[in-house]
Amino acid sequence: MVKAPTEEHPRPAFGWAARDSSGVLAPFNFSRRETGEKDVRFKVLYCGICHSDLHAIKNEWGSTIYPVVPGHEIVGVVTEVGSKVEKIKVGDKVGVGCMIGSCHSCDSCANNLENYCPKMILTYSAKYHDGTITYGGYSDIMVADERFIVRIPENLPLDAGAPLLCAGITVYSPLRYFGFDKPGTQVGIVGLGGLGHVAVKFAKAMGAKVTVISTSTSKKQEALEKLGADSFLVSRDQDQMQAAMGTLDGIIDTVSAVHPLLPLIGLLKSHGKLVMVGAPEKPLELPIFPLLMGRKIVAGSCIGGMKETQEMIDFAAEHNITADIEVIPADYVNTAMERLAKADVKYRFVIDVGNTLKSSN
Ligand SMILES: NC(=O)c1ccc[n+]([C@@H]2O[C@H](COP(=O)([O-])OP(=O)(O)OC[C@H]3O[C@@H](n4cnc5c(N)ncnc54)[C@H](O)[C@@H]3O)[C@@H](O)[C@H]2O)c1
Ligand SMILES: [Zn+2]
């Protein structure tokens, strides 16, 4: 028998959910747990719209549990803390990113890499420790274990800072881990969307030389003049791509759809690394010979651990790095999803949850 939401958890909550793979979002009443002794409860003020939310509502990865309340770039103000919470107090500005739980006992958890814990629990469309389904940040309140709470520095704007909780850490972590953060390193960023545009900003702040690789010239001027990239390559322009062969130490590939890897591998120097962070729904073709000839590496990377996420947010605040955003009301989410699918946003939609999410009852 289906339980009423408040039988499962005592605290009523309200958000927007997709009920099936049409991906259409509509108002949704549900409930959240009581504030546990290690929990932080906060009023959601803003939530970014990640392309992963779009993959998820349409079940493009085949793992969505409906109804799904998406959103994993969530910021707000703390309203309650449990008795054993140590670092967060009522009134603090905080955030939650892509995960809200892990096993706390494996090697990855012991090394602050909760993101690689085999039992990592995603912020939405996953099963929590108590067996209930997790719901994301297109909603009025959030509750999470303190370990998965990020402190938002005072000088970081909450709306333009929200996307850093997923887009930011997803690019910051591989830039650091793969050594693309050394001054003068030649780094390529493929796909100038939500992830890509903050990747340019972080890589520049770390001292890298940044080349944006895009399918058309439409974002060229902005990439060079506004985002601070050093050069711009049009991936469909054979002459440009040929001239740039063997020039990059590393590439971060943020593209959300199936696309050819051969031209990207060609851009790498010997020993160069192509790091995939985009998550297309179907496998990509991997040409082997160009990898062998030059001992090149293709790797992947998934968000970042909580310690590194805090480090990334503090680095962003110090270097004035935020996302370029279009703030929207909650009832615009379906239009926003249609526009995101067409890459018609510069560069991240952020829902003004605090001012526009209105419960129907
Ligand atoms: N690895 C991780 O931890 C992680 C975290 C967040 C998001 N993601 C994934 O990263 C991808 C990007 O997310 P986003 O929020 O930046 O999306 P986005 O839609 O904002 O940006 C994607 C970019 O890819 C470009 N693009 C789309 N199709 C293309 C094609 N066929 N060829 C070349 N370029 C193309 C778009 O123009 C856009 O600039 C998504 O697949 C998302 O699920 C992964
Ligand atoms: Zn995301």
UniProtKB/TrEMBL annotation:
Sequence ranges assigned to domain Enoyl reductase (ER) in this UniProt record: 23-351
CDD domains given in the database record: CAD1
Name this protein carries in UniProt: mannitol dehydrogenase
Reaction catalysis annotation: D-mannitol + NAD(+) = D-mannose + NADH + H(+)
Keyword NAD: yes
GO molecular function, one term: zinc ion binding
Pfam families: ADH_N, ADH_zinc_N
Function: Oxidizes mannitol to mannose. Provides the initial step by which translocated mannitol is committed to central metabolism and, by regulating mannitol pool size, is important in regulating salt tolerance at the cellular level.
EC number from the UniProt entry: 1.1.1.255
Single GO biological process annotation from the record: lignin biosynthetic process
Cofactor: Zn(2+)
PROSITE patterns registered for this protein in UniProt: ADH_ZINC (PS00059)
UniProt xrefs under SMART domains: PKS_ER
Organism: Rhamnella rubrinervis
Assigned keywords, A-Z: Metal-binding, NAD, Oxidoreductase, Zinc
Family: Belongs to the zinc-containing alcohol dehydrogenase family.
